[in-house]
Amino acid sequence: MKTTARKKTVKRAAGAAAKPRPRNAFYAQSGGVTAVINASAAGVIEAARKFPKHIGKVYAGRHGIIGALTEDLIDTSAEDPATIRALRHTPAGAFGSARFKLKGLEQNRAEYERLIEVFKAHDIGYFFYNGGNDSMDTALKVSQIGEALGYPVTCVGVPKTVDNDLPLTDCCPGFGSVAKYIAVSTREAALDVASMARTSTKVFVLEVMGRHAGWIAAAGGLAGRKADDAPQVILFPEIAFDKPAFLAKVKQSVERNGYCVIVVSEGTRYPDGRFLAEAGTKDAFGHTQLGGVGPVIAGMVKEELGYKYHWAVADYLQRAARHIASQVDVDQAYAVGKAAVEFAVKGHNAVMPAIIRQPGKAYRWKIEAVPLAEVANVEKTVPRHFITADGFGITAACRRYLEPLIAGEAYPPYVDGLPDYVRIKGKAVKRKLKTTYKV
Amino acid sequence: MKTTARKKTVKRAAGAAAKPRPRNAFYAQSGGVTAVINASAAGVIEAARKFPKHIGKVYAGRHGIIGALTEDLIDTSAEDPATIRALRHTPAGAFGSARFKLKGLEQNRAEYERLIEVFKAHDIGYFFYNGGNDSMDTALKVSQIGEALGYPVTCVGVPKTVDNDLPLTDCCPGFGSVAKYIAVSTREAALDVASMARTSTKVFVLEVMGRHAGWIAAAGGLAGRKADDAPQVILFPEIAFDKPAFLAKVKQSVERNGYCVIVVSEGTRYPDGRFLAEAGTKDAFGHTQLGGVGPVIAGMVKEELGYKYHWAVADYLQRAARHIASQVDVDQAYAVGKAAVEFAVKGHNAVMPAIIRQPGKAYRWKIEAVPLAEVANVEKTVPRHFITADGFGITAACRRYLEPLIAGEAYPPYVDGLPDYVRIKGKAVKRKLKTTYKV
Lengths: 439, 439
Description:
The structure is a homodimer.
Chain A: E1 23-29, H1 37-48, E2 55-61, H2 65-69, E3 73-75, H3 81-86, H4 109-121, E4 124-131, H5 133-148, E5 154-159, H6 175-196, E6 203-208, H7 215-220, E7 233-235, H8 243-257, E8 260-265, H9 293-305, E9 309-313, H10 316-320, H11 327-345, E10 351-357, E11 365-371, H12 372-375, H13 396-402, E12 414-415, E13 418-419
Parallel strand pairs in A: 1-2, 1-4, 4-5, 6-8, 6-9, 7-8
Antiparallel strand pairs in A: 2-3, 10-11, 12-13
């Protein structure tokens, strides 16, 4: 088994290649956090405790990979088991995340040498990296350079991204909960604007995340069931923005339904590739608007059609909304964490647990390992057949894909009217190196 | 009893003054809607069914008072009882609301004459008006002019406003649920930015409603429990914006905690009274920013302190968020609707059911009738002793006031991963008048 192979450079391990000896694991959260990334952490940590012959302690990087580079490791074994269980219902990154992409070995060999230095010092044999596209690339690099630098580490990527844009996996943990939040919020806000439209607001705009892929915007489409149900307009990054067609669609909706709800992806672009949010569009008052496509769209509607509008920008609220997380999403987030450990102890290296949708009418899924090399830096956008011909809605096929992902309400416990989210103690692992590293 | 008194002008009622004869009731939703205004509608309709000797049918105005003026009435008796029950868990205005303030009798006598014409035609003896300050004023006027125009109507206001700014009542139905949504969202987003702050976003800004009163902003303060917990800064309309003090507070929080969460009321103003959102403030890129105080504050932080930021504007999402409604709020919304009917059949006129907090440590409340004349057009803002000395937080007294209002999770039922909100049939009452009225 790969994971139990070791080299002479590993102290205390010489000659033990055939028989597993527990080695420590490093776990890190990377990139934008989600409502369920801590469920994956719980999956990794709880599963690791079931393989004491393979895995010693799980050390989490404080603020992701930066914790590894700076030898700032959190000893998860010092946390109460109840705390680890509670991570399942706690949003955001309990150990701290980082937007920090490792460069290639050629560009910054020092970074990798430092990683290996820290891994050696703490006898780390497993590397679990919980993130999106960039992070799968990092995990792949670490799996390769470990070998190159004489310290092989078993690397498993743990998928996480609200953008739902990783390939090979049917969906990405984190997405289902954002999708549920956006679908619920769109349905609720639509009822509001429908109530007000007779004398006041006629157009409501909800800006959602997804700079390159329109999966979250598509999820807004779940709010309606029938033709003319809100949202009447969805703007996808995958579809070049056609202003006259858009305005005609809004006008038609207001004239037919009395109001119009628009869900717009932050990544919506003009045909020439400029983001609407960055295109210097004027708002209703002639001022240049920047820093949100929602107000840009609202201003355009006001200026061209004269309708009274409201707009909302959900921003972090959408991806942190653990209070309305999808049960399927929580289950899958936990499952990929758990599977990552199981794959690692079975000797799989440079893989990612992927969620595989099973054929059949009822939604069933399983986990399979897929090679990181095929995942890293590949982006899965919304396919054209998931978007209606006019470019402003989702098709029945898209609905069939999305609907199971928002199933079930995984409510957190409440105390005094508020979700009882957990905080880790975050006990630091004693430093072993005299060297420091500046990031 | 006042409510059973009638004049010769009412057909079929002559000589029946001493003995109640059922007369119909008019119910309307007014102004901005809430997550629980339909619970009040359910309270009115279900209670009315328990007084068949007093109240015949409940007719709801389609789009509020406009439905009365245009004789566009919805027959609530044509709705399935299950639909009326489901209003308790359905946000926004099921019958349609209106932003339409009746003028004084002197300014527009025709409006009142038209109302009375419609009320007479449909034998309406009760007027239940579900709204905020302006609506209580309207209900008061109708109670006065009914008499003046020879058609007395028993008028009871049903309180509703997310702004929580009605006097005499301890709180306003609609507020508790927004407060819960904002407190939950602030807590969640704070965990997100805390995760990201090491390498990315350091300041998160959440813009909330409340143009004149900072109750909703104050509710954001419930997210934290200890000093230094998020939100570290709350900006109230009641406190003149002090830019240097604000920036110093943000800087201090980032330096001490690594990040800063700001909850800003849309009504935050400069000392000279200008709204920040309308003050032509430049964003980080030197562009004039308008249409949201959230981005204005974020831009200011970026420009002056250089911190990376994110901002969210919850807008309608906050007041429509029935999925995370407060159980106390839902109960109170229902109770004020029910009490309005009970007061009316007991002969109270020109009153509003108010929520009275009982003394004692445990939160208990009851309903009492208060005179509309003392409610109309009076605005209750956040008292100074509810705001910390520095103007950026809430005091323990404020927390004691707010906390019970967000207690309990009144989850709606779900189907296919989404809340199962009800839609009324909305069967129109047959028109009796040949005249029409243009609003």
